[in-house]
Amino acid sequence: MTRTGTSLARLGLTESWAEGTVTSLGWWAGDRPAEDAAPIMWALARSPDPDLALRSAERLLQAVPDRADLDAALRTDAVLRGRLLALLGGSTALADHLVTHPDRWHRLTADAPPPGDGACAALLRAVGADPDADGMAPAALTGAEAVDALRTAYRDEVLVLAAADLGAVSEPDLPVLDVADVAAQLAALADAALQAAVAVAAAEIGGGGRLAVIAMGKCGGRELNYVSDVDVVFVAEPADQQTTRMAARVLRVAGDACFQVDANLRPEGRHGELVRTLDGHVSYYRRWAKTWEFQALLKARPVAGDAELGAAYADAVAPLVWNAAGRDDFVADVQAMRRRVEEHIRPDHAERELKLGVGGLRDVEFAVQLLQLVHGRTDEALRSPSTLEALAALAGGGYVAREDGANLAASYRFLRLLEHRLQLQRMRRTHLMPAADDLDAQRWLARAARLRPDGRRDVVGVLDAEWSRNVRRVRRLHEKLFYRPLLTAVSRLPADTARLSEKAAAARLGALGWASPEGALGHLRALTAGVSRAASIQQTLLPVLLDELAHSPDPDRGLLAYRRVSEALAETPWYLRLLRDEGQVAQRLMRLLGTSALVPDLLVRAPEVLRLLAAPVAGQADELRRDPAEFASSLRTTVARQTDPDSAAATARSLRRHELLRVACADLLGLVDVEQVCASLSSVWVAVLQATLESVERTFDGPPPARLALIGMGRLGGAELGYGSDADVLFVCEPVHGADDQEAVRYATTVAETVRRRLAAPSPDPALVVDADLRPEGRSGPLVRTLESYRAYYARWSEPWEAQAVLRASTVAGDADLGRRFLEMIDPIRYPASGIDTATVTEIRRIKARVDEERLPRGADRSTHTKLGHGGLADVEWTVQLLQLQHAGERPELRTTSTLEGLQEAAAAGLLRAEDADELAAGWRLATRARNAVMLVKGKPGDQLPRSGRELAAVASALGYPPGGDPGVFLDDYRRTTRRARAVVERVFYGW
Length: 992
Prior knowledge:
This protein is mainly alpha-helical.
């Protein structure tokens, strides 16, 4: 490279043609700038893209008739130099406009009027409208002529504003325009453009109707971007065909000339009428409007058309806006709106989104608007449509700490600046940061935003660091913005502003989802009281925890549970440290506490499970997914060390509590499926039974007179237990060491009763009920029988229901060999070689119908009863069991105690269509999950799904439905799934 080329490269001019261009323009001599052109070259070097600026400057100089005047002005006028060269290197679209209209360079000089001065009047005059006339006065120009004139005038004014906005990039001594002032000027231009469009429409359509244009969104808030949709609503008197045509023409004229105009924020959206009368608008908002529509109205501002009608509209809707936070569905609507925002983000754009991404512009705007709606009801100072003005008012009123308000405003300004620069480049609407591998685009954006290398990083590194810092700050301040002032209202924290009153704090909590704000404030007061280290840590933690709780199904219950847990673990040194240092523990815990009543009840007595909520160590499995077999082995070993039976039973209950809590946490967090949950809970019961039986047997002196086996029945035998399930068992004994049957039964009965009594000892944990009612003769029969007594009974007296009951029998504890021989003895009964006859099938169907009728609780809804409802657990299980009784004698593959395996094997054997098996399996899985969820949410067993309210929302959330969503979606899914399963049951089980 030549010496001249090297010098130019240092100035950022890297293209091969640059040397010839600057030389031909007289800006370069030899290997350095021409003496009087040096300021031009330095300004060019500071332009966002020096090569682009040079190319565009050459085009402009070739296009202007007074080239010498422009060249001379560039050498002497620093204002022109900075504005023009920064604009030419910062916006290809505006550079093209300037080249097309080269005389406009005079508007960029130091002597020209400042940007915005007379701009609005210029747009109206461009279409022949009188700036001082009534808002409905017609223009002189119409049709394409009016559109062309308005387009040119609008682009002229944007060019002047953009040049002033960018000027300090190339000439650091020029004033820097505040991004809020730029946005306000763009909104004023949009107001004028809409007024000009109204004038054109009035000239084309005529008539005596009144039409007012109401700006919404960014235009209404006077915070418009360079390239943005302008959201509007039309009010008309009368709302007839003529005013509708006028409104449609306004959309077309402004859209063709200046910017896209969007009227979809009107009542009923794009499906609603384009224009409505004032009464029509008010009637809609009073009867039908959603919360998000009032949030949109917060920025409503009359901008064009009939000024009196527009003002009447603003006055009419304002009271409705400021009462929106008192609506019953306020929280649900706000959460739904946030989800819609997140759903609009393309996954490949999520990390680059300036507007919709986490820590982006929408986060700031959403937070400020929500606080305005909550506190603006009583404080009129907060009722500004401008985000930055409202944020300043919130800080001034003590609703937000002054430092936090200032930091959030600074981040908002920075993000808006990047958004403006990105849109200026090609005058296209975009909110995406350049891709990570597009260094040229990143460098251009950094320079356009007046960022400079800092000695440690180049300009791209500075941009990346500033972008990341501001996104993180917005994300962090979001938590503090809502929740930190709540703590200042209830504790003696130092504050640098006025404190949020308890009334205002209660209003904020109510708006954020707490049904009892006063109760919540009491919990916060108790948690943060005093000057202890624990209180200090709580003050640090609570903003984050409250944010998590606000997104849970029941924040009130969650906060109460958190207080209970915190008080119970007050003397546990690692508890608060764990929440503070392990972010995932706090996040998971709040989700659990805000969903489940069972988890906190168990947690206060098994706090060590909290450690399992931590993020898994790299390369290791999540502790919450631990193999249940490890627990079973550990429990038996630990209980075996206890010499006292009471201590052994207490130890078994304690370990069972720990495992029950682990499974519940894994289940609620979506880490295990329903089969794993059932297997784990069944494994817990089996381990407890085994350990307790062994501890009781050790208390007897001498050799025992009998062997004893526990046979699991029902869900225990099928390894399909739920959280609230009892353990259905049969006790089988066999005399040994010369003992007779009576002595064996007496001993075994004593052991069995002791096991049942010790496990059923009063405990705050879910009950450990050992149920032996499925034994021969039911509860009126002996608790324990010998193997031969069972054999005799089943051979002589067994009824169809008893053959069905033993289909899921399996050995769970005691003597394994005796258990095996018992199962071999009942195999011919449960798997009859020739199946069952028609009369037995009829009897089983009759029993099923009677059970469904008699056992369904009064007032229960059969469509949502998980056990006895249509398509529920009983329907599916009885269908599988009937197929087993009919065919398992000939098909050994059907001999399983598992419902799902039975369905799978029946389909494989051709006894069920594959799609029927899938429908039954889906119904069984969903009913089992729902039944478990009811226990987790309520803390007590239940088969009936809640009909509505927070309990239903919590059940839906426990099943993986989005928090804050409509729980009716879950109910619809449940009814649809079980209805399909019921159709199969009616065809296969009942033969209909």
